[in-house]
Design a protein that fits this description.
The complex is a heterodimer of chains A (236) and B (426).
Chain A lengths: L1 H15 L23 H6 L9 E6 L5 H14 L4 E5 L6 H6 L7 E5 L7 H17 L4 E5 L5 H5 L5 H9 L5 E6 L11 E12 L6 E11 L6 E7 L3
Parallel strand pairs in A: 1-5, 1-6, 2-3, 2-4, 4-5
Antiparallel strand pairs in A: 6-7, 7-8
Helix pairs in contact in A: 5-7
Chain B lengths: L1 E5 L8 H7 L5 E3 L4 E5 L10 H14 L6 E5 L2 H10 L3 E3 L5 H5 L11 H10 L4 H6 L2 H8 L2 H9 L17 E10 L2 H21 L2 E12 L4 E6 L8 H14 L6 E12 L15 H10 L1 H4 L4 E6 L8 E4 L6 H5 L2 H4 L8 E15 L2 E7 L2 E16 L6 E10 L4 E7 L4 E8 L1
Chain lengths: 236, 426
């Protein structure tokens, strides 16, 4: 009787979509559900969102909107009550921007690197911390911010780094999202988003001119054919 | 069989109870000078009551308590009253309780002043006098209290012994035959001590809010490491991991000869989970993960960022990462949903010094290391200042787009008249 009632209630929850990100139900494979960003065009491009159990990457040039896009994912997850870790060897995250983007800061663990975080020696503890965070299984998403880190420093990491992290991640319900200036790595079923900055939008004339935002062009680098444009508003 | 101890000169608080517990765990404390002992089942150690009484008396003398009264009887009342009224050792044979107590004064019963005066007026002086009165007559004159006092005077029990619970300590010590040097052998020994300790905590419905690992080193020094995770736990595996991780960062200077683990017990917490919210992390796993990130947490480089109530740009503090319940913490944020994607600042810490060429009062060229190029568009200046009563700041902020690509937030420190790049807008 109790079991039947529970099943009925779970079916009801599933059908009514009572929450944007409803908790996992009994017997449901946590790796099956992708992490939605809440941006319709982008989720469509990602076939639902960033896949769990996989390394995904968001790469692009400076000011292409990489951080904004990942903030959108983190905001959605933390607001739904999930935990997110942000590993930041370059110490570049701005908490005020994260809060403006809707990130619920108490549910985001931030690991700040030191200033020397841009060389390989400092990347190793960050990689180790990413492994610890993924192994804990506590975090819905772990973001590893490698943007601004010299490619040479990244390439000096042990060759097995990303394979090892992918193996570690495979059995976990988490997603690892890399932010980088260029392609780093992604899992066999992970997403690879290549971002390209469009011309910024301004309004008004000096001295009352305002930066309105940027239309970021996103392309799924692995499939190569599909793309989307995401409008990023300026915080000011 | 019951025993009673009565000390005419009360020993220090708890000493009599500790003495009694050396013979039996079932001990009832009746104040600092009196204790009742349940001595049933001790016949294999002390075959006769006289042997047992002799052992009690010898132990008391060993402590220097030469005036301790010891009485053994088959009822607790008889033992207690005999101990109060007779010096040294008294053994009351079974069935002889009333006769043994008969010559003792009535004052040995806990009578109030009114009863004592009444019995004096009746001409009663001893327990035997009271015990000889008919129960029915006493009931008619004193109500239920009359027969009860008569039973006490005859050494008849009316209530069972209620043992006084010993104060519980959650502490365990292991002395090692050979000193150990290194964490790996210690790991096994910690498990040996922690598992029964945590099982004891669980049996009592407790968790450990903190533990202290006290290492005795070969040179006689102590190496104490207190641990206090964010949430109480009674999981031996979690505590062992936390201790090992702590010792990795704070290793003992010498080999370990003995160690003691002390737990600070706290009532177990019952958590009501929600069907609608995502599963919350187990506090034990969270504590373990944070301990594994010790290198980051110890340097204050891991935690949850929190904004500060100030207009000073870039102000924030790092707080301990301890996510609370979803509903309370989110404050309804989940209901409203996040705003659309917004440009984020990727900060340079500290802001990168820059050379800025101006044209008509606006930035025209920016040079700050790798951030360099002609400014093709700009918004500003946005002026802000504050904290004049403390460390004042005043700045003029611009958002600039460079010809080489990239959007940056730059500012001029108006107090020092210097330019900086605050960060990249991404």
């Amino acid at each position: 009787m109790a079991s039947a009632l529970k099943n009925a209630l779970e079916d009801l929850l599933r059908s009514r979509r009572l929450q944007a990100d409803e908790p996992l139900l009994r017997g449901e494979d946590p790796r099956g559900r992708a992490l939605s960003t809440g941006i319709a065009g982008l989720d469509e491009l990602l076939l639902g969102g960033f896949p769990r159990g996989q390394i995904s990457e968001v790469h692009g040039a400076c000011s292409s909107g990489r951080t904004a896009l990942v903030f959108a994912l983190v905001a959605r997850l933390t607001r739904a009550g999930s935990l997110v870790a942000w590993v930041d060897p370059g110490d570049r995250l701005d908490p005020a921007s994260a809060a403006h983007a809707g990130v619920h800061l108490p549910r985001m663990l931030w690991l700040r690197g030191e200033r020397r975080g841009r060389d390989t020696g400092a990347l190793l503890p960050a990689v180790s911390a990413v492994g610890t965070l993924l192994g804990s299984g506590l975090f819905e998403a772990v973001v590893f911010d490698l943007a601004g880190i010299a490619a040479a420093a990244r390439q000096r990491l042990p060759g097995t780094t990303w394979i090892r992290l992918q193996r570690l991640l495979e059995d976990q319900p988490s997603a690892l999202v890399l932010i980088a200036d260029g392609h780093v790595s992604h899992g066999p079923a992970g997403a690879a988003l290549a971002m390209k900055a469009a011309v910024p939008r301004w309004s008004g004339t000096a001295p009352a001119r305002l930066l309105r935002g940027v239309g970021a062009e996103v392309r799924e680098a692995r499939r190569g054919l599909r793309g989307a444009t995401v409008e990023l508003q300026a915080c000011s | 069989m019951f025993g009673a101890l009565f000390a005419p000169v009360p020993p220090p608080d708890g000493a009599l109870l500790d003495f009694a517990r050396e013979f039996t765990p079932r001990v009832q404390s009746l104040g600092p000078a009196e204790a009742l002992l349940d001595l049933h089942g001790l016949g294999r150690v002390w075959p006769t009551p006289q042997d047992l009484a002799g052992a009690l008396l010898a132990a008391a003398h060993g402590r220097g308590w030469r005036d301790l009264h010891v009485a053994l009887a088959w009822t607790r009342v008889a033992a207690l009253v005999a101990a109060r009224g007779r010096d040294g050792l008294t053994v009351v044979p079974p069935g002889q309780e009333a006769a043994t107590l008969a010559p003792l004064p009535l004052d040995l019963l806990d009578l109030d002043d009114e009863r004592r005066e009444l019995f004096r007026r009746w001409g009663l002086g001893t327990l035997g006098d009271l015990g000889a009165l008919p129960a029915r007559g006493l009931a008619e004159r004193l109500g239920v209290e009359g027969p009860r006092l008569r039973r006490l005077a005859r050494g008849e029990d009316e209530a069972p012994l209620v043992p006084t619970r010993a104060p519980e300590t959650f502490e365990s010590t292991l002395e090692l035959e050979w000193p150990i040097d290194g964490l790996e052998p210690l790991s096994f020994l910690l498990a040996r001590v922690l598992e029964p300790l945590c099982a004891h905590l669980k049996d009592r419905g407790r968790r450990a809010a903190g533990m202290e690992l006290d290492l005795g080193l070969v040179d006689g020094r102590r190496h104490r490491r207190p641990l206090r995770p964010a949430a109480p736990s009674a999981e031996a595996r979690t505590w062992r991991t936390l201790m090992l991780l702590d010792l990795e960062s704070h290793p003992p200077p010498e080999a370990i000869q003995a160690f003691t683990i002390r737990a600070q017990p706290t009532p177990a917490r019952t958590v009501q989970f929600s069907l609608l919210d995502p599963a919350q992390p187990s506090p034990e796993r969270l504590a373990e993960t944070m301990a594994r990130l010790h290198e980051w947490t110890a340097a204050g480089r891991a935690g949850a960022p929190a904004l500060v109530d100030t207009h000073r740009p870039g102000a924030f503090v790092m707080e301990t990462f301890a996510p609370g319940p979803v509903g309370a913490a989110a404050g309804g944020a989940a209901v409203t949903g996040p705003p659309g994607p917004r440009l984020a600042l990727r900060a340079f810490r500290p802001p990168r010094p820059a050379q800025v060429a101006l044209h008509a009062g606006a930035p025209a060229f920016l040079s700050a290391g790798s951030v360099r190029g002609a400014v093709i568009d700009r918004a500003g200046p946005w002026r802000a200042s504050g904290d004049w009563w403390d460390v004042a700041w005043s700045r003029e902020e611009w958002d600039v787009a460079l010809a080489a690509g990239g959007l940056y937030r730059i500012f001029r420190d108006r107090l020092r008249d210097e330019w900086f790049v605050e960060g990249e807008l991404d």
